[in-house]
Description:
3-stranded parallel β-sheet; 3 strands; globular; 4 helices; alpha/beta
Amino acid sequence: MNIIILYFILVYFKIEFLFSRLIASRKEDSILIIKMDAIGDMVIWLDSAQEIRKNFANKKIILLCDKSFYELANRITYFDQVIGIDKKKLFNVFYRLK
């Protein structure tokens, strides 16, 4: 029974991956930084974020972070765009597509 469930999960993610490739995407000169740490780890990492901003001043820097850090990250000028996500909702397909 577990093998059948695993098979359906793998098929689901494969189909989702294929559909995500069909969605038109824009080509931008940007950098995506994914930091899903807790707030304390993110605060310690901010010096590195400052260096990334210095080294890539001509690029759009997008931070993908946990929603608990979203408000603080929005106030920091190192990022052009901040996307906060809820880790608990990642298995919801509609949440991921949004």
